[in-house]
Every structure is written in C-alpha cells, then in structure tokens.
Automatic annotation (TrEMBL):
CDD domains: RasGEF, REM. The keyword Disulfide bond does not apply. One of its GO terms (biological process) is Ras protein signal transduction. Keywords: Guanine-nucleotide releasing factor. This is Ras1 guanine nucleotide exchange factor. InterPro entries: Ras-like_GEF, Ras-like_Gua-exchang_fac_N, Ras_G-nucl-exch_fac_CS, Ras_GEF_dom_sf, RASGEF_cat_dom, RASGEF_cat_dom_sf. Residues 213-448 form the Ras-GEF domain. Residues 45-178 form the N-terminal Ras-GEF domain. The lineage of its organism: Eukaryota, Fungi, Dikarya, Ascomycota, Pezizomycotina. It comes from Aspergillus steynii IBT 23096. It comes from the Eukaryota.
C-alpha cells in the first residue's frame, strides 16, 4: 500500500532498478543506500562493477535484491589489497544490523523487513561463511586468533545472527580456523586403478639417468612439480607477496619462491647433467633424453617442467656446444623446436596461453606467466580511480589470474609415486650447481672457436635468448627481483 500523504513526484517514492532481465520499479526504501558510490557498466547484458567506495562495495557484496556471485568471489579473493580483515568484519556486522528509515509506516516497515533486512542478514552470514571457508588467507598467529575469537563471540552473543540459517556452519568454520585448520580444496579424486603401472629400472640401487624410462621420469617430475604448484596460496600472490622479505631481510619463504627455486634448479640440473658427459656421444644421448622427457611433459600438460627443461637446454654453457648439437638427430631437433615454439614468448606467450586454455585437467601451468601477469597488474594499473574510488576493475583482472592458477590445483595426476626414483631426481636437482660456474666446463668440452663471441653478460651469462624464446630462469629472476 502506498502512502497517499507522500506525493508521487517525491524522488524517494520509487526508483527504477535496471538489470539484465529488465527494469523493475521498487519503493524508495528498498533501494541501495550507497548506490551513488559505485560505478557500474553493462557488459554482455550483465552489470559489472568498475569502482566504488568501500561502503559501496560492501553493500554490493550483500545486496538484498540480487546475488552477483562473480563479484562476490572477486571481492573475497582480493579485498586484502584495499582493506583489512578486521575492517571488513566490522562493516559486515554493521551491515547485518542495518536499521530501517525512521519515516516508514507500518506497512512499509513490514515490506522493508521482509524484502531487505532478512535478505541482507542472510547474505552477510553467507558471505562470512564463504570468506572463512574458501578465501581465508590470514596468517596463523595470535592476532588472527584474537580476531577469530572476537568474531565467534559476536556471532554467539547475537540472537539475530544465531537465528539466521547457516550460522551454525559459520561457527563450525570459525572453530576450525581457531584450531589452525587450513583451507581445504575440493580435489577431484582419480581412481587409483586408472594409474598406469610405473616403469622402473632393473637396478634401483645403482641408478643412472639413462636407465630411467623417459616416460617414467616425466611422470615422477610431474608429481613433484604438481606438489609445488598445489601448495601455492592466494596470500602469496596478492600484493606481490612472493617478493616481501622478512623482518630480518630474509628471503620470502613461500610456496611460490619454492617453485621458482625448483624451476631454476631443474634447469641447472639439465645443463649440468649434459656438461658432466665428457664423451660427446653421451652428451648427445643425454640431450635427446631430456627432449624426450620434455615431450612427455607436454603430453601430460606439465608445462612447468617442460619450460625448465627447455630453459636448461638453452642455457649458455649448453647452447654454445655447436659441435655436440650438430650430432643431434634432425628428428630430435625438430621436436625441440616445436616445444620451444609452444613455450615461446612471442606475442606474450600466445601459443602457450591458447594451449593451456584448451588443456583438460590435470595440468601444471608455467608459474612465470602468472607472476609476470600479476606484477604487470599490480604495477601498471592504479589502485584507485581519479575520483578516489577503489579500482575494482583491477581486482577483477587480478582475480581472473588467481582463479586460473587455482583451477589447476584441484585435479591430481593419476600417477603412482616411486619414492626411489623421486629421491634420485630430487637429490640431483638440489645438488645442481650455479649456471655461472658451468661456463668453464663448457669451454673445456668445446673450446671457443675463432669468431665466437660471448653473449650479453660475457662468460658469466647465465642464460641465452634463443630467438623469440625466454628462459624460465630469466622470467623467475625478473619477477622475483622487480
């Protein structure tokens, strides 16, 4: 029932809400309180938030009139880039206890409670539950536990919150966080019966690399690499967290940094293993072996190890072995050229990106691309608009990168680990020397020819640009130190 004492021309009387399903007239008291603090656009018929004040974005997060799941996921994934957990929690609590306008009559108040307050309260509790269950990235320390105890008290002591559906689930999640439980990803389990039988060397005690079947080597390297990738957390990727040093200026200890180190060590191991072969025929055999392993990694969608092997084969001390390379078969060289083309940096790695998008899981993507994209977004796009609003478009682009990274953490490989093989590979990789120390060994194997020039950086150059290709070592170092 409309209030006849309020003229129809009163701008507060109704407002027109536009959505992809059309325009809907709603009473003024059911409109958004901070609607003018958010800038939106319509993309493919969908309303997309471009920027807003913090109050306006929190209102969007808990709207009563519609649910924007994509916005909510982006907000919860990236809010740490523009506010803190404690501020967000207090704003959500304030939003839960929203008060009606004073001038409502009895009928309008009932409509406000039914169509706005109830919906907002349900949204707030669901947002809190979703945040703590799926997007919790706060450090496990006493400050965080104090925050969680405060949140637990607020929920328990509020009859209104306890009366809201899913509040009991929210309390369970808070209790799990207080006990230090980590966010659990829902893994799509692969039946063990579908795992191929491992191909192991006859003598596992005196193993040599060429005794290991290239397919099995690729499988075990893939298991190792996917383990590194699966341990990466959102908190390490936001605000270039992998670059932040500790209080004592120590190197960051994150899963991202561990994977970067593994990538560099793996590339060095490939190069060192080749250079350790004094016999030219054995060097050729090892080169062919690594190309075969890289090709198997491509078949397994393990682009991370693939890139490291290509990088190892492209490191200066190996790349300059012209006579050795001249003895490698055309078929192997053609295969290597295909792999280099796939992982080439041409047009911002367009070939690799297209291949990754069309690859079915399981998959281990090349981390360097994500770190490069995140660094570009963080440094190249302002955090706020010219009007001072939070630039939510930047967060949307960041969330797209993070979502792509995360989606490849949910499906494990159907391979059986072989501990002896993994130990053999890991020990070799970890013991690999620095690439800068390999140059003299390379010169011993093939002395510098007349007219041969050092590549940029001189004898100490640790990598080589092979046409349009960029070494993962280069990318990892560039992203880590930028």
């Amino acid at each position: 029932m409309e209030d006849s004492s309020r003229p129809a021309s009163d701008p507060r009387h109704h407002f027109r809400y536009s959505s992809s399903s059309g325009s809907i007239d709603l009473p003024w008291f059911l409109h958004l309180d901070h609607e003018d603090e958010v800038v939106c656009d319509v993309v493919d018929g969908q309303v997309v938030v471009k920027s807003g004040t913090l109050a306006g974005l929190v209102e969007q997060l808990t709207r009563h009139d519609r649910l924007d799941a994509a916005f909510n996921e982006t907000f919860l994934m990236t809010f740490n880039t523009f506010t803190s957990a404690s501020v967000l929690f207090e704003m959500l609590v304030e939003r839960f206890f929203i008060k009606p306008p004073d001038e409502l009559d009895e009928v309008e108040l009932q409509q406000w409670v039914e169509h706005k307050q109830h919906a907002i309260r349900l949204r707030v509790v669901n947002v809190l539950r979703n945040w703590l269950e799926r997007f919790w990235i706060e450090p496990d320390n006493e400050d965080t536990r104090g925050f969680l105890r405060h949140a637990q008290t607020i929920v328990k002591d509020s009859p209104e919150m306890m009366a809201t559906p899913t509040s009991s689930h929210l309390l369970t999640i808070i209790d799990q966080r207080l006990q230090g439980h980590q966010t659990m990803r829902r893994l799509i389990r692969t039946p063990t019966s579908s795992a191929p039988a491992p191909v192991v060397p006859k003598n596992m005690k005196k193993m040599k690399l060429l005794d290991v079947d290239p397919v099995e080597c690729a499988r075990q390297l893939t298991i190792i690499e996917s383990g590194f990738h699966g341990r990466i957390k959102l908190s390490e990727c936001l605000n270039k967290g992998w670059q932040k040093r500790g209080p004592d200026d120590s190197d960051p200890s994150t899963a991202v940094n561990a994977m970067i180190l593994h990538s560099n060590k793996l590339a060095n191991w490939v190069a060192e293993t080749i250079l350790n072969q004094s016999n030219m025929k054995k060097r050729v055999a090892v080169m062919k072996y690594f190309v075969s392993v890289a090709d198997q990694c491509r078949a397994f969608n393990n682009f991370a190890t693939l890139m490291s092997i290509i990088s190892g084969l492209g490191l200066t001390p190996v790349y300059r072995l012209r006579f050795t390379w001249s003895q490698v078969s055309r078929r192997t060289l053609a295969n290597l050229d295909e792999l280099r083309h796939l992982m080439g940096s041409t047009r911002n790695f367009v070939q690799y990106r297209e291949t990754l998008r069309s690859s079915a899981p399981p998959c281990v993507p090349f981390l360097g691309i994500y770190l490069t994209d995140l660094t570009f977004l963080d440094d190249g796009i302002p955090n706020h608009t010219s009007t001072g609003q939070i630039n939510f478009t930047k967060r949307q682009k960041t969330a797209e990168v993070l979502h792509d990274l995360q989606q490849h953490q949910t499906t494990p490989y159907p391979f059986q680990p072989v501990p002896e093989l993994q130990d053999y590979l890991v020990q070799g990789i970890q013991a690999a020397g620095d690439v800068h120390d390999m140059y003299e060994r390379s010169l011993d194997l093939e002395p510098r020819q007349h007219g041969e020039e050092d590549l940029p950086g001189g004898q100490g150059a640790g990598y080589v640009a092979t046409g349009s290709h960029m070494s993962s070592v280069v990318i990892a170092s560039m992203v880590l130190k930028s």
